[in-house]
Write a structure and sequence with these properties.
The complex is a heterodimer of chains A (299) and B (310). Chain A contains eleven helices and two strands, in the order ααααββααααααα. With 299 residues, chain A is mainly α. Chain A has a two-stranded antiparallel sheet. In chain A, a hairpin with a 2-residue loop joins β1 and β2. Chain A starts with a helix and ends in a 10-residue tail after the last helix. Chain B has 310 residues and is mostly helical. In chain B, strands 1-2 form a two-stranded antiparallel ribbon. The chains are: A mainly alpha (299), B mainly alpha (310). Chains A and B meet through α3, α4, α9 and α11 of A and α5, α11 and α13 of B.
Amino acid sequence: MYNAEYFLMQGANGLVIGFLYALMALGLTLIFSVLKVINFAHGEFYMIGGYISYFLITVVGGVNPFLGIIFAMVVLLVIGSLFEVSFLRPMHLGSVERPAEYAILVTFGLSFFLQNLVLGLAGPFPHRTPSFMSGGIKIGYMTLSADRLIAAGLAIFLMVGLLLFMSKTWIGKAMRAVSQDKDAASVTGINPLWMNNIAFAIGASLAGAAGALIAPIFSFYPDVGVLPSLRAFIIVVLGGMGSVKGAIIGGIVIGLVESMGIALIPDMSRALAYRELYGLMIFALVLLFRPRGLFGEAQ
Amino acid sequence: MKKASLKKATLFVGLLLVGLLVPLIIKSPYWLHVFVMAYFYGLLAATWSFLDGYAGQFSFGNIALVVIAGYTSGLLGTYTGLPLPLGMIAGVLAAGAVGLIIGYLCLRFRGAYLSLFTIAFAEAIRIILNTEHKFTRGPCGLRVEGLFGTSSQVPYYYLMFFILAVSLFMMYRVLKSRWGLFFKAIREDDEAASSMGVNIVRYKIIAFVVTSIFCGIGGVFYAHFSQMLTPNFGQIATMGLVIGMAIIGGVENLIAAMLGGIILEFGLEGLREFGAWRMVLFGGLLMLVVRFARNGLLAPVYKKVIGEEV
């Protein structure tokens, strides 16, 4: 049943999906490195990205799917920025006790709120946006769909774009300065509060892009963001909290492990369900043997 | 000081009396059922307050531990001839053992590892229970034996009330002991606590295991009360309710967190016709309370009336 072709196909599939995982994790790690906040609403930003592109393409109609992605990113940029100003900024002004707990609570509260808001507005039924393009690439007797390739290609494009933005522009450099040492950065005239805001908005927007990119591949519903956000947590822990390199490599590793792992369990429905569990095992192994992750700094 | 403890005693005796009298006044089985569930959520909110509000450890695992204890007892009842009380004890012990393993894995480090691991762990448990449906009956639900040979809600009411009162009393005693002081020291400043010779990892794990055991007690009761377990009870949304109840009540006050659980469960039940929108309201309230009333809504009232913290 399993031959070289099958593993090649699973490998290609895992790589493709791994780039999308990496995009999701990159947003999370950017937020963590600059704000020192773990965004528990990341999965809901992803979910909303999918809904926005669906709404534009299917309900409004006549919109190019690629415009749907851009629009989803812009809306999440705004949502992220507004949320950061109203709920996270007080933390960085020092007016909040036990900031670590506060950050989890307020982002988790947002996640609970958004999930139910979308449930109330759009109902529990699954949706899927139309394909970007039909067809695909044949590998032996199996096909890698064009949608997956386009999604992975755009994910790579966005990640390269972010890396260039972080290394070439003033804002990108300023954000990195804040992530390394907030106080030193503010001495040089950088306002850390604005860098926090920009980082959170970009992070949210990347999650929204991941959601909009996946929307033609997997159907989505109000709590569709739960598993992708857990996966992003695991990727970030595996790669090292706050490490950009770690998020990208970790995403690809998890994508490959999951799709190769399917081949280990003969029963197909079990294999698909247990794909989600490999991440948790990796999490446990990281905690046991390398708590700072692959590329994290020692605490 | 003396006045405060008198007021406190009055409050506790009053709550006990009201609790004992409820089934004499309320005859509707539906509302008695709601009372039992409200006490169940009150217990869970108190366990969350115990861990986060006193020991400073943020977990998403309470409901997963409830589910583990419930399924352990339910599955033992279905597949082995083990007497029911032994199955229930096994359920509680299973929750404690899992708590010990998770605690050992995550609590040796600082940072958000516990929250990240427990949220992923809870989903994993849900996925396993759904997938192994031949064994667990999956989404169709596992039938669990009832505790009393009657369909009346009254014996369940008194049992849950007893569990709630005893659990709260025991948690309260633990928090008033030396352990409680260590927990508080860890929460306020773990580095200082460590330099004063508190073995912080050990006490963080102790706090987590104690919480797990009380979650297990709640879980075993829930299994044999509802007589039907489904994996999706363990979803993160349920955990969101528990956290929200503890926070809105007041997480730094065991009693306020418990009352938050009871009152909000009644509120959610009363608004049932609004479907998802009541949860939108709940989520919005949670965010606003966290942002503007960090001590919750009931804890400040408690402090004002009684004159001291719990």
